[in-house]
Amino acid sequence: MKAELGEAHAGARNAGRPLLLEGGLDWKPMSLTPHDMDFIAGKHAAAREIALAFGVPPQLLGIPGDATYANYREANAAFWRGTVIPLVRKAAGAMTGWLGGRFVDCRIEPDLDAVPALQVERDALWARLSAASFLTEDERRRMAGVEA
């Protein structure tokens, strides 16, 4: 069958000759047409624009060509710092206000130490505070945001 297809449709003299598939055979394209590639590029561009509108770095979408490992790590930290944490703080503030009527000393705050994307920054802060021998233990804790 392969040889028959090659004889009937391969080469310059058979160019443009129609191929009739019978007996349940169907055609499966092995590559993308220029039209398909334009559609995919447009889809990726739209995804980038939507992500940016919501404060999500395009590198986090996994679009080919957008990310390297270092860019991903920085983009993830920027996403947490610039988008997620402000939204969480806003929601926590609203919940604190809502619960404040019933529970006077109620305060809801996010635990930023539990965010893996910000761990490198947190480790750097602790390293700087540990190296600052002129600070007392309570001052270090206060600067790190830990209750003394």
Automatic annotation (TrEMBL):
It comes from the Bacteria. This is Phage portal protein, HK97 family. The lineage of its organism: Bacteria, Pseudomonadati, Pseudomonadota, Alphaproteobacteria, Caulobacterales.
